[in-house]
Each structure stands twice: as C-alpha cells, then as structure tokens.
C-alpha cells in the first residue's frame, strides 16, 4: 500500500533543498500547501522586466496517484491566455507522470515555457514596431509623391490659383491707390512750412530785380493777421 504522506514529505524536502529561496511553505503536513516563485531569465523588451509568477501547489490525499491542486498566482505581466497556457503545461506533465512525484517536472516545464513566451512576446513587439515603421515611411512617401495629376485635377487647381492671384492683385492695387491719395503728416507739415516761408519772403520786402506793389498790403487787416498773431502769442 502506497504511503502518500511519506512520498509527499520526501518530495517537499527535496524541493526545499533545490529551491531554498524560491519555495515558501503555506501550510505544513498533512496535505502540505506551498508556493514556488518562478522568474524567466529572458527580459520582456517593452517592460524591461522578466516574467514573474508563483506556482501554488496543494497536495491532495492520494497524490502522486492523482493531480495536486495547482494555481498560478502573483503574476505581474501575464495575460489570462498565458496563464491558461501554463496551467495546460502543468496538466500535461501531471498526466504523463502520475504514480510518481512530479512537481519538479512541472516546474522544469514551466521554466522552459515562460522562456518561450518571452521570446514570442518580443517577436510580436518587433514585428509590430517594424509594421509601424513601414506605415510611417509609406505615409511620408505618399506625401512626397502627391496625388497623380490629371487634366481634371490640373484644371481645378488652375482655376483656384487664378482666382487667388486675381484677388491678391486686386487688394494690392487698392492699397497702392489708397497710399497715393493719402497725405502723410510729414507731407502736410512740409507743405504748410513751404507756404509760410513763401509768405515771409513776400512780407520782408523786395528781392533784387522784383517790383513790389505796396498797395497790395494796405488792407492786410482784412485778412485777420492781427487776430492770428494774438492767438499765437
């Protein structure tokens, strides 16, 4: 008759010696419950971290003649599909090794599988990055090449270009006309200054060779010069 308790105890002692830092006893004998922390050697490119999880093992009364209760816990970067894949690995190893202690074969198979998973994830990420790069390059090339020119697209472009050019020239001509008729402050000041200087020359007297009719200045009061002089003072 098989002594299940003894086989379980012996296996647990062996596992503790092989995984002194990774194995933690959650519940002692009988029907021990423990976990083993597993870490992949390969690193996920996107996260720059390995895959980490705990394999929780709970012995049943008749283990190893029947499957123990297994669980994947504390998984930091595993999807549900990946967890199901790992549990399938556990089940396959158990079915192949019923009748003898098989937790160690399960651990070894899981360790190999998580390395494969990391490799697959990294390959998918590389392919996605290459795809995104190609799409960006193709988009840039389309911009450079542009839309193929047909007679229809050229005529539409020509019509739009001519309309924009006409409007631009119309606005420029209007601006030129406005500027040509507008007298700046400097121009206005200069014109008044020239008129004032001409008047001073006339009032100062005769220039050589010019006859001045004094009667022209007899009625200067009528021009309001006195009032203008008072206002300026």
Structural summary, described in words:
The protein has a four-stranded antiparallel sheet with strand order 1-2-3-4, covered by helices on one side. The protein has two domains: 4-123, Roll (Ubiquitin Conjugating Enzyme); 147-197. It has helices at residues 4-18, 80-96, 103-145, 151-181, 185-204, 225-232, and strands at residues 23-27, 33-39, 52-58, 69-73. The model has no long low-confidence stretch (mean pLDDT 80). It is built from six helices and four strands. With 233 residues, the protein is α+β, with helices and mostly antiparallel strands. 58% of the residues lie in helices and 10% in strands. One of its GO terms (biological process) is cellular response to stress. InterPro entries: GIR2-like (IPR040213), RWD_dom (IPR006575), UBQ-conjugating_enzyme/RWD (IPR016135). Residues 10-117 form the RWD domain.
Can you lay out the helices and strands and say which pair or pack?
Elements lengths: L3 H15 L4 E5 L5 E7 L12 E7 L10 E5 L6 H17 L6 H43 L5 H31 L3 H20 L20 H8 L1
Antiparallel strand pairs: 1-2, 2-3, 3-4
Helix pairs in contact: 2-3
Q: How many whole angstroms does the radius of gyration measure? A: 51 Å
Number of alpha- plus pi-helical segments: 6
Shape: rod-shaped
Strand content: 5-15%
Average pLDDT reading: 80
Low-confidence stretches: none
Instruction: Output the helix-strand order.
Output: HEEEEHHHHH
Give the strand tally: 4
Strand line-up across the major sheet: 1-2-3-4
Task: Give the structural class.
Answer: alpha+beta
* Overall domain count: 2
Question: What fold name stands as the CATH topology of the largest domain?
Answer: Ubiquitin Conjugating Enzyme
């Amino acid at each position: 008759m098989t002594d299940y308790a003894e086989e379980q105890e012996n296996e647990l002692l062996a596992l503790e010696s092989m995984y002194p830092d990774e194995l933690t006893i959650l519940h002692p004998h009988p029907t021990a419950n423990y976990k083993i922390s597993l870490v992949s050697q390969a690193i996920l490119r996107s996260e720059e971290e390995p895959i980490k999880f705990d394999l929780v093992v709970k012995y049943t009364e008749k283990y190893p003649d029947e499957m123990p209760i297994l669980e994947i816990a504390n998984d930091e970067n595993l999807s549900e599909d990946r967890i199901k894949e790992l549990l399938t690995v556990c089940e396959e190893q158990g079915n192949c090794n019923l009748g003898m202690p098989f937790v160690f074969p399960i651990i070894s198979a899981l360790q190999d599988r998580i390395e494969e998973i990391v490799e697959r994830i990294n390959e998918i990420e590389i392919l996605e990055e290459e795809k995104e790069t190609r799409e960006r390059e193709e988009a840039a090339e389309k911009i450079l090449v542009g839309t193929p020119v047909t007679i229809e697209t050229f005529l539409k472009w020509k019509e739009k270009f001519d309309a924009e050019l006409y409007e631009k020239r119309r606005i420029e001509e209007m601006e030129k006309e406005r500027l040509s008729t507008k007298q700046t402050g400097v121009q206005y000041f200069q014109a008044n200054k020239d008129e004032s200087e001409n008047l001073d020359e006339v009032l100062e007297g005769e220039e050589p060779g010019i006859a001045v009719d004094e009667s022209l200045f007899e009625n200067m009061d009528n021009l309001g010069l006195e009032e203008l002089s008072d206002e300026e003072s």
